[in-house]
Amino acid sequence: MGEKKTLVFSQDWFEITRPTWEKLFLLGQPSRVLEVGSYEGASACFSIRQVASFRPLEIHCVDTWEGGIDHQEAGVDMVSVYERFQSNTANMIAGMPHPVQLTVHKGYSDIELAKLFAEGKSNYFDFIYIDGSHQAPDVLADAVLGFKLLKVGGIMGFDDYLWQEELPYGRDPLRTPKIAIDAFTNIYCRKIEFLDAPCVQVYFRKLAE
Ligand SMILES: C[S@@+](CC[C@H](N)C(=O)[O-])C[C@H]1O[C@@H](n2cnc3c(N)ncnc32)[C@H](O)[C@@H]1O
Question: Which of 43, 133, 200 to mutate to test the pocket of ligand 1 (most atoms within 8 A of CB)?
Fold first, then answer.
């Protein structure tokens, strides 16, 4: 599509996710999308094009735009990353035939998700993607709060299920998403059904509050 020429991404992380989302968006037909972790807007731009080509979209993007531990260690210029997020999403929205209501929540995800809950957006979103902090306590908070915000019948997913750091003292499970995703999906097993996805990500449908 024409609008693609004006999008600028320094990372291609989302390309692994794209085929899974093509299937999940057909299955879920979302109109209200929430993502934790937006970076340059690759996943947000996918949602915008995939939904607003056919129907109006409400999308909420939560990010500190400070980067995770990995970005901070690599010295990534997060001011430029935020500028690219703004221009990429604006350019994508400008090319869409249907309206897009984009709300940017610049802050820590636990606080921003709690604010959405306090605003009354429980049982509200059709699709939620957790791709923010990789630290287990943060991922657990995103999972529990995100689940509250997800509609019954809605789809929620996590990136980086197998992400881990090379640390001088070896592997530290508390600094990975996996232990939090496992704990959450075990505790909520009666309220979710898993959906088919590559093993580097985890998706489920919410069956009950
Ligand atoms: C891997 S990137 C997101 C990539 C994006 N979903 C995509 O597909 O292109 C992770 C993002 O999470 C953000 N982040 C890390 N910890 C966070 C936290 N506790 N709250 C909110 N955002 C956080 C970082 O600033 C970074 O932009």
Answer: 133
> Which pair of structure tokens corresponds to residue 126?
């059709």
**Residue range 120-147: average pLDDT?**
98
How many CB atoms are closer than 10 A to CB 84?
A: 18
DSSP annotation of 36 reads: E
Which atom in ligand 1 lies closest to the alpha carbon of residue 46?
Answer: 8
pTM passes above 0.90 = yes
* Domain residue extents for the chain: 2-206
**Which tokens in the block code for residue 204?**
């489920």
- Counting every residue, how long is the chain? 209
200 CA from centroid of ligand 1 (Å):
17
Q: What are phi and psi of 104, to 5 degrees?
A: -100, 125
* Residues having CB within 6 Å of any atom of ligand 1: 13-14, 37-40, 42-43, 62-68, 108-109, 131-133, 138
Per CATH, the number for 2-206 is: 3.40.50.150
Q: Select from 33, 11, 20, 146 the least CA-distant residue to 88.
A: 11
pLDDT exceeding 90 applies to what percent of the chain?
Answer: 92
Closest CA to 106 of 138, 62, 149, 69: 62
The DSSP secondary-structure symbol of 161 reads: T
